[in-house]
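Q: Please design a sequence for this.
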C-alpha cells in the first residue's frame, strides 16, 4: 500500500538525517533515529553484521567508523509504503568509503521498517546488502 505524500516526505527526511549523521560520525543524532526497543534490528553487509538492540547497533556503527577514514551512504531510488504509523521502505543506496587508504564506491540495496512515535519516524528494522560479486547480470547464481 503506497504511503501518502506526508509520510513519504517525513520518511525521506528521516533517511536524509540518517545519512547526514552517519557521514558526520554523529552517534547521538544517529541513535536518535532508532527505536529504543531491545529488538530493534540491523543487518549489514558483513557476514557477522547482525545486530539486535541499541547497544549492539551502536557497537557496529563504531566499528564501521573505526575501520574507515571516511564513510557515507546516499539513498537513491526508493519506494515508501505504509499504513497508519508504520512505513516500510525499499530502495537503492550508494556506499562510499575510504578504508586503509583505499577509496571505494559500492552499490547497495536497503529495506527498512519505520514507526512514527511522538511525531518522529524511528527505524525498527534495517537491512543493507551489496549485490553478490561474481554474479553476472541475467544469472540467478554466481559463476
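A: Design:
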Amino acid at each position: 500500500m503506497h504511503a501518502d505524500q506526508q509520510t513519504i516526505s517525513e520518511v525521506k527526511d528521516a533517511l536524509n538525517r540518517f545519512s547526514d549523521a552517519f557521514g558526520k560520525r554523529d552517534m547521538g543524532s544517529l541513535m536518535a533515529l532508532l527505536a529504543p526497543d531491545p529488538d530493534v534490528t540491523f543487518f549489514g553487509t558483513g557476514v557477522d553484521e547482525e545486530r539486535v538492540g541499541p547497544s549492539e547497533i551502536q557497537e557496529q556503527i563504531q566499528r564501521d567508523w573505526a575501520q574507515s577514514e571516511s564513510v557515507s551512504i546516499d539513498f537513491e531510488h526508493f519506494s515508501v509504503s505504509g499504513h497508519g504509523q508504520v512505513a516500510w521502505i525499499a530502495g537503492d543506496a550508494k556506499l562510499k568509503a575510504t578504508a586503509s587508504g583505499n577509496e571505494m564506491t559500492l552499490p547497495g540495496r536497503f529495506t527498512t521498517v519505520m514507526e512514527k512515535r511522538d511525531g518522529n519516524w524511528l527505524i525498527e528494522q534495517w537491512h543493507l546488502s551489496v549485490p553478490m560479486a561474481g554474479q553476472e547480470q541475467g544469472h540467478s547464481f554466481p559463476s
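Q: Thanks. Anything notable?
A: The two ends are 37 Å apart (CA to CA). The chain has a mean pLDDT of 94.
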